[in-house]
């Protein structure tokens, strides 16, 4: 059963919030974010501002999964994580 739009947004937001609060994460979380974002970007109802945020998060997740030190990558993006989590409320 495929996830609905709101479910995808909530899962993505949860992962970002975990990265923000725990300052750590896993490669599988980065891969899951990429899959969620690819799916969300196919939604025609997403405006350009939200697409831009999704593309930033996608880049963050790609760089994170390829990083030699994922936890350090997450720590260095704390400000962006906070902004992205706040922005996710506009997706509803």
UniProtKB/TrEMBL annotation:
One Pfam family hit: YtzH
Highest rank taxon of the organism: Bacteria
InterPro entries: YtzH
Protein name: Putative Zn-dependent peptidase
Species this chain originates from: Bacillus benzoevorans
């Amino acid at each position: 059963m495929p996830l609905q739009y709101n479910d995808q947004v909530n899962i993505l937001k949860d992962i970002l919030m975990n990265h923000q609060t725990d300052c750590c994460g896993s490669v599988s979380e980065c891969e899951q974010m990429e899959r969620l974002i690819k799916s969300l970007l196919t939604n025609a109802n997403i405006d350009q501002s939200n697409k831009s945020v999704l593309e930033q998060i996608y880049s963050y997740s790609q760089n994170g999964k390829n990083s030699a030190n994922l936890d350090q990558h997450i720590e260095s993006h704390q400000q962006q994580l906070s902004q992205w989590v706040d922005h996710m409320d506009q997706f509803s």
